[in-house]
Design a protein that fits this description.
The chain is 42% helix and 9% strand. The chain has eleven helices and seven strands. The strands form two sheets. A five-stranded mixed β-sheet has the order 2-7-6-3-4, with helices on both faces. It has a two-stranded antiparallel ribbon with strand order 1-5. Strand 3, helix 4 and strand 4 form a beta-alpha-beta unit. Helix 5 runs antiparallel to helix 6, helix 5 crosses helix 9 and helix 7 packs across helix 8.
Length: 302
Amino acid sequence: MLRALPLAALLALSACSRQAPAPPPPAPPAAPAPSTPPATQSETTPAPAPAATVQNETQQATASQESVDNGAERPARGDASLEQMAALPAAAQLPDGKWKPGVHYDPLVPAQPTSVAPGKVEVVEVLWLACPHCYALEPYIGNWLKTKPSYVEFVRVPVMWQPIHRAHARLYYALDALGRQDLIAKAFDTIHDLAERKLPPLVGSSDDETFRVQQQFATQNGISADDFAKAYNSFTVSSNLQRAEQLTQRYHVEGVPFFVVNGKYTTDVAKAGHDCPQTTPSCGEKKLIELIGDLVATEHRH
């Protein structure tokens, strides 16, 4: 297990490989997960010892690459030859050929079913509430949501790698089940505010303590203790967590924030901004929104 570091320092680390921490990148892109080679623009966390608590996970969460290598069997990627070629949109379908498969986006093989009605195009963001890169991307996502086409359905899925991620995912789905999506945004803010002050980001040293901390957050924001407890332990929340676990594996999520367009294409800030000069602030984030727009338009036409 890694030596415990101050939480704020850990959350400041980014672009770390699975083997050893690396300096932070010039811009905040994706946070890589552990079973991949070192990434140049990402945030990550090593696999903890089996007895590690959620608090220990919090201390490790951004010290190095986000780890999913916990021994669980993961779905294999499809054959990267003919199957991938068949999954790609024709070059003429994307404007000016400015987006290159394998560079700016990847085909998801095999393609995954979506949960939207016919005629709709699904965009999924896989995220972690304590991820600095996800948090930095929020203003861009918020602006895009105000202008996205009506045929686009935006879905968020909390990543399910380790206990720390599952703890925040349960809070996410409990608040969602209570119809308090406004508090999901507030939890996002609170987690990062606490991290900056070197305090545990809405987690404790055990499952029971994590529940108490998150319940206190809920009651301070107008939810009764009983209502939160019922939602927290509900079948709906358990089902959503199970689905999030499945999607984390099926999408081959190796870093967050991570985007899936209509179950067919995946991308992130680093890939979309592949051609961005390092000296251009926010270029990757802007390119990501632009790429998602072009991919959803292509899907809608077909």
